[in-house]
TrEMBL record:
Protein name per Swiss-Prot or TrEMBL: PadR family transcriptional regulator
Record-linked Gene3D superfamilies: Winged helix-like DNA-binding domain superfamily/Winged helix DNA-binding domain
Stretches assigned to the Transcription regulator PadR N-terminal domain: 14-82
Transmembrane segments: none
Pfam families in alphabetical order: PadR
InterPro entries recorded: Metal_resp_DNA-bind_regulator, Tscrpt_reg_PadR_N, WH-like_DNA-bd_sf, WH_DNA-bd_sf
């Protein structure tokens, strides 16, 4: 069984990796695949959307006679990542309350 990941969470995961270092697309996809199931055909539209929203920037760097496009988190991306982290904490607490029975004094159902 696979749990579907929302676009917001996927954006947060990408931005969190880019916060650590710049990546070219294939390497970023590989590191994401170590944690979640994601294909390159899914990753590149995410990167384009983040770039369109000014959350990341790109630059090209030569590698073995070709150019690699690298992605770097932008200041707006860092701010957006912080918002996603706050939403994640609230969401996780809410889910834990239900899934793990951590709600105190609350009755469900």
């Amino acid at each position: 069984m696979k749990i579907k990941i929302s676009a917001d969470l996927l954006d947060g995961l990408v931005l969190a990796l880019l916060e650590r270092k710049d990546y070219y697309g294939y390497a970023l996809t590989q590191d994401m695949q170590a944690v979640i199931e994601i294909s390159e055909s899914t990753m590149y539209p995410v990167l384009r959307r983040l770039q369109k929203n000014n959350y990341l920037t790109t630059y090209d760097q030569p590698f073995q006679g070709r150019n690699r496009r690298y992605y770097r988190i932008a200041p707006a991306g860092t701010q957006h990542l912080e918002q996603i982290r706050k939403m994640w904490v609230n969401y996780k607490v809410s889910l834990d309350n239900i899934l793990l029975g951590e709600a105190k004094g609350k009755h469900y159902g």
